[in-house]
Amino acid sequence: MSEKKEELREKAMDLLLNSELSKMKDTEIANVIGGVSSAAIGKYKKGEPISENYCKKIIDGHDRYIKSLIIGENENTPNFCLVPIINVDGACDTGRGIQITDEPQYIIRHIAIDGAKEGDLCIIATGDSMTPTVPAGAYVSIRKVEDWYNYFGYGNIFFILLTNGRRIIKEVRKSQIDHNTHILCVSHNENVDDEELPRDMIAEVWKVMKILTDKGF
User: Is residue 204 within 8 Å of residue 161, measured between CB atoms?
Assistant: First the structure.
């Protein structure tokens, strides 16, 4: 084994055995790191060889986790929660909302978000109609709104699943047509028009709780 590979292996082992990761169960470590099974984590802890690729995954996963914790410390909000990032993206564009496929939903990895609650999810934004507030590639933490039909909370940003399979991220304001039958979907990109959306096209509503970009890590 080359000197570089040995250094990577030693660092990865040290993180598994002596860092914040050592306080977690193998399944939790696997979720934080992503791309590594809990069974593999258990074997690595017992001294089995770790490939260079998996060493890098462990090191990178640990660094992301620590940076996520630092976000909470800087905002004086220690009540963080690990939120699953799922393979569902939200289109910041009403006209070209992403089509939901038949592919099974799965967790990509977890991210620690301050102020998050159990049941929250994290998705990845696409499109540019909500720029600069929600840039493409941003991690968007969302929380389900159960009683949205009776109270929407105008002025907030929402992730909306439509009955035709599309899903969009928009600021929602009171409809200028009829607030009982429509909502106004507002874009933050001045080059993109706002649109009236019929309420009967809405299947689910999730409120956007936090927007994390590269600048936030």
Answer: yes
- CA separation for the pair 7, 11 (Å, rounded): 6
Please tell me the total number of residues recorded for the chain in this structure: 217
CA distance 157 to 142: 10
- What's the CATH number of domain 80-216, 3.30.70.790, 3.30.1780.10, 2.40.50.140, 2.10.109.10? 2.10.109.10
Is the alpha carbon torsion for 70, 74, 76, 82 positive or negative? negative
d(CA 202, CA 94): 12
pLDDT digits (tens, 9 = 90+) for 7-35: 888 888 888 888 878 888 888 888 888 77
Give the chain's residues under pLDDT 70: 1-3, 67-80, 89-105, 214-217
Please give the full DSSP string across 150-166, using - where no structure is assigned.
Answer: T---TTSEEEEEETTSE
Closest CA to 17 of 53, 51, 42, 40: 42
List the domain boundaries for the chain.
Answer: 3-74, 80-216
Nearest to 167, CA basis, from 87, 102, 94, 101: 94
* Nearest Cα residue to 120 out of 108, 111, 130: 111
What is the full DSSP assignment across 161-201?
Answer: EETTSEEEEEEEEE-SS-TTTEEEEE-SSTTS--EEEEGGG
Q: How many CA atoms lie within 13 A of 175 on its CB side?
A: 12
| Strands 80-91 and 121-126, sheet pairing | parallel
Model pTM greater than 0.85? no
